[in-house]
Batch of 2 targets.
Target 1
Amino acid sequence: MFKIFKKHPKTLWISMQDVLAIIKSDYDKSWPFEIIEFRYGGTTHRMGTYVEDLDEKFYNKIKQEEIHFVFDEQTYTSFEEFVKSVHINGIPITDVLGPIEVLQAGIVNGEAMLSSPWGEKRLSAHAIEKE
């Protein structure tokens, strides 16, 4: 007799400061950061960056001013505006303590990508063991 077990992905816990550092590093290199979906304090959020008409710009260098930041339904035109404006449960995003639970990463058009040009391994390299 055979038993079929569904493989459940391991939960990724990471600090918000590490995620923001990766996003900022990408922005400084004029790279858009992948969209991630995460849970913190009982609420689920999506954040990251996007570039309008990315297909047209794929083979050309993307400029920083073309990168927009997104948090849930809000968009921001600079990293500074993003970190200044976004609050989670009343806490500024830069002051979020404790780990966040990454549910999906590399989201494009609502679907998690199997692989990303930037690689999800950058997030998992900062994984926190949560008891």
Note: The longest helix spans residues 16-28.
Target 2
Amino acid sequence: MSRVHVTLVTAFVGFAALTACSSGSDGPDSGAGTQKADKPVAAPAPKPITQELTQAHITQALLGDGETLPGWSLHGDKSVTEGQYCNGSKDADSAPAGWVRGGDSSYEYNGSTNNMAYVEICLFDSADHAHSQYAAWKGTETSKQQAPKKPVGDENTLVINPGLSDDSVYGYVRSGKVNIRVRIEGGTAGDPSGVQAMLAATLKRLQQLQDGKAASVTAPEEQAAARQ
């Protein structure tokens, strides 16, 4: 083989190796970067309420002034809920099976009681007992029930104008062994987003407290996030 032939072959082999090396370094890195950027990051699943929260925890989870919806403020003080209050029947004179403790708060709109909102939290000793009372709470008016746009908890339902009410929305959530009920009465039937936001914020505050953190989630934050 002549020197010129050997030189040409050597140059060709070197060029091919350089091209392969260049392709190998650019291709996979670029592809891997694209895959990482395109892959959606899943949000952590909310933890159900499984611990026996204290009365102080329940009180802290209830929304206070500046934490509830704009225009609404606490009407009186946060209260310790009596056992019969957590029953599905308004005429109940005893606590439901498995009831442990609860808390409730009420809110007035722009300083007037013409429109009122209510939040109730009820803790049970098991998820089964909580489910039973959740079902009793939401009732049987299936034609008025609808699922929230952004579900929270293990079970959740909105009831538009329950019973004989007008312009009212009731919301119910069960998470583990806790039930939460939010009621807004007066001018809300066309927009249940306020009830949804209060439900979500109250549950997330309970989850924060269960994790040993401060209750910091607010209803306005949840309402803004739901609109995105």
Note: Helices lie at 3-38, 55-61, 127-138, 193-210, 219-227.
